Amino acid sequence: MIGSFGMRDSIVHTGSDQQTIYRLWAASGQSALESSRILMLSSSATSTAIMKNLVLPGIGHFTLLDSTTVQPADAGNNFFLNGFLSVGKSRAEEALPLLNELNDSVNGAAVVKSVEQVLETEEGREWIRSFTLVIAHNPLKGTLETLSRLLWEDPANPPLMVVRSAGFLADFYIQFHEHCIIEPHSETAPSLRLTKPFPALQQWADSLDYKAVDPTEHAHIPFVVILIKEADKWRAEHDGNFPKTSAEKDAFKARIRALQLKLDEENFEEAEAQAVRLWREVGVPSDISSLFSLSPLEDPPQAPSSQQAQHSPSHSVAANGVPRQQHNAIFHALLRTLEKFVADPEGSGCLPLTSTLPDMKTDTESYVKLQRLYKNRSREENARFKELLKVQYPDLQIDESLVDLFVKNAHHIKLLRGKRWGAWEEDRASVGSALEFMTRETATHLALSALSTLQSKGIDVTVGALTAEIQQYVGLGVELPGEVEVAVGEVARSPTADLPNTAAFLGGMIAQEAIKMITKQYVPVNGYCVVDLVDTWTGIVGQ
Amino acid sequence: MRIFSVKNVVMVGFGQITLLDLDTIDLSNLNRQFLFRKKDVKQSKALVAAKTASAFNPNVHITPLHGNIKEAQFDIAWFSQFDIVLNALDNLDARRHVNKMCLAANVPLVESGTAGYLGQVQPIIKDRTECFDCAPKPTPKSFPVCTIRSTPSQPIHCIVWAKSYLVPQLFGEDEESGGELDDAENKGENAQEIANLRKEAQAFKAVRAALRTPPSSEKPEASRLAFEKVFRTDILNLLSMSDMWRSRDPPVPLNFDDIRNGKFDLPSKPSKSKTNGTATTETTAKTNGSISNGSSSRSSASTSTETLVNGSSSKQASSSLKDQRELSLRESLEMFVSSTDRLAARLRAGEDTISFDKDDDDTLDFVTAAANLRSAAYGIPSKSRWEVKGR
């Protein structure tokens, strides 16, 4: 009975059916997912739960690397083993068939070797580097150090996700040098350019005469035009400044209210409500302009042959005439171009205009007219951006649709820089301050680190030993808060339990972060994400 | 979702589990609910899940029940036998019901739900926590996409369809309108149905092209093409998904020529009121281009649908509608043809896109006619008010 369990005879993961569920990250994300290769170190309950949530959406390939055999405890908690029939057999090989059954289009493999063994040879290290993403669950401390350093050597190496769990507590970390996101799926509305209207829009505002239009038209003037017109008037009287103090802002809103001819003119109400855009909208938001100062990471110089093997030709851009590889060269080329675009003396000094308008109280004619103005302008600016790109990077091979996507998302792009696994803990001051301000998250993280240290040294996991270890990390003079005691108590209670519930929770969460990394969509966790299922909270430390 | 929790509950080793689900397994469940296999399609979810999950822990006893939680047999005494109830329901009504029953039976309830990337869990214990209905729940503002696009049941569904879907599809911008469908499936609407709707959207291309090229005697009129596409082909396509119509009345494909010649009869069902060529109802009141908000009177003997009254001032339609008479199916067809022709002429005269505007008579006519035709095809009863302008 147990052995006959199968997920699906023949899978429906073909054609449109597959796409329907995974449209969350669009075709581009799905194709990134389908060409990804994941290395999973361990085939514990947590590992297989993570893999389940990556196999279902359809990664290309996964390998379970695990030299252990199934213990009775595994049989009790791991859904993907054949229960007690699996005891004594290779854990990776036993877990593989049921994971494979979830999705025919995913290619899975089991390798019965230890990570330590693989890390010993250059061939093995090269094999690890060949994956898109490496995920490790509860690795030994020394192994993790070797592995994280190996993958940190070169920005082109795959990111490493480290997952540690004990009973109801867990944390995970993604080690990456740099992560560039063109589609973070941000909810924030892009600028309407109200503070720096483009000529055609300005012209409309200038030509508008409230008295010359009939009452119906008056009640349908788009708020965009009202705001531009009123802002101009205001600035003429205030040395070119927009309303600044809260009294000025109130006065400005009162002016708009006064323009209302009848109480039900909703377009003026809208203008009043949207006036906030005038004091919030900036040409280039600081989170974007701060990216301009980042120079691309350069991969360390290596023998030319291995260099070639790791990079596709389109990624190679000569910087300063030195034939070195730049990491994420295309994104940086687009970023540089964006910097040029906003500095362009012929331009507006703003990020490229997006053509999407919010809903507004107006008539069809005005809305369509407004839409056309924005669309035309955004087309012009898109063309200008491409011109600048061409001038700056004449030889860059880039898909035009990618440029369009970048320009469209210029308000939302993200560039994350990460740290090596463990680098944060080496900074005692930083950990000490986190223990003060992010107490429970830091306490739980340190308790898991202490557990890992004790296990690697073969020391019995006791409250005393764990606490002593944590005291080492933060410095002997530091008084440990009560939260440390709580976390240490919980870790000491269940140092090795891989509970089905915790595994299921982590499986969903970590697969989701892995998908973000692979698809380069949405913003992944940068730091240690700590999970406590006793009190049910999550938090992030060590950013 | 609920299936994953069944797995976890079994793995942890609860002693006795009663599993209740109204649904049967749909093909589209297979790629996210992994206790089911292809051979299980159309079987009871509860029965199959219980069988598969039991294998993981022989010490757990699972009692599957295939039924609706709102049935009378699941009374307070029935609820009282449990130590805890886990809700993994997909609708507000059932959630409220279980909430009440658990409070009455004094059984702790874990209430949960997801939508796309969002989800929530709430433990509910009588007199100790707030209950599900303590905080008012927002009533969903929009209609589920599948209701609008495949399974309308109220006049408003047809109006929204005509206004927000058909008008943009035919006369709006030629942009991939997949966003709405993407959102819908993120919210967990039927995947197979959505795949079907995507196909349907593709076929609009030909009609769009016809509307934008000058008419010629060799080609069928664009208005007829549009009619055939939405009131015949799409409906036939929907009918082919037989699962959809097991618990609902299927729509009837309309026939252009038969309606025009007065030969088209909708099959009459005792439960439904129909619009047909011989409607004899009184009318909704119409004042100068606007449709009154309800208060329509209906003749007692009539079986006809309360139909949209056209508020147009267009030359052709206005004279025949001055008396505020309700439209017959044939009149709806004629109005569909004439308004489509007028809109197509505007496109050809250089208008880029046309979107619905209640003050634009051509679009109001079009929406009125299309919504009427769709209501007729779906046999939609006429109890609620029709307000095209107001919506």
From TrEMBL, chain A:
GO CC terms in record: cytoplasm
Pfam (any one): ThiF
Region (Disordered): 293-319
GO biological process, any: protein neddylation
InterPro entries: APP-BP1 (IPR030667), ThiF/MoeB/HesA (IPR045886), ThiF_NAD_FAD-bd (IPR000594), Ubiquitin-activating_enz (IPR035985)
Top-level taxon of origin: Eukaryota
Bias-annotated ranges (Low complexity): 304-319
Function in brief: Regulatory subunit of the dimeric UBA3-ULA1 E1 enzyme.
Similarity comment text for this entry: Belongs to the ubiquitin-activating E1 family. ULA1 subfamily.
Name under which the protein is recorded: NEDD8-activating enzyme E1 regulatory subunit
TrEMBL record, chain B:
One GO process term, biological-process aspect: protein sumoylation
GO cellular component: cytoplasm; SUMO activating enzyme complex
Annotated Low complexity bias: 274-304
Keywords: ATP-binding, Metal-binding, Nucleotide-binding, Ubl conjugation pathway, Zinc
InterPro entries: ThiF/MoeB/HesA, ThiF_NAD_FAD-bd, Ub-E1_IAD_1, Ub_act_enz_dom_a_sf, Ubiquitin-activating_enz, UBQ-activ_enz_E1_Cys_AS
Active site (catalytic residues): 146
GO molecular function, one term: SUMO activating enzyme activity
Signal peptide region: none
THIF-type NAD/FAD binding fold domain mapped to chain residues: 6-191
Family according to the record: Belongs to the ubiquitin-activating E1 family.
UniProt name for this protein: THIF-type NAD/FAD binding fold domain-containing protein
Lineage: Eukaryota, Fungi, Dikarya, Basidiomycota, Agaricomycotina
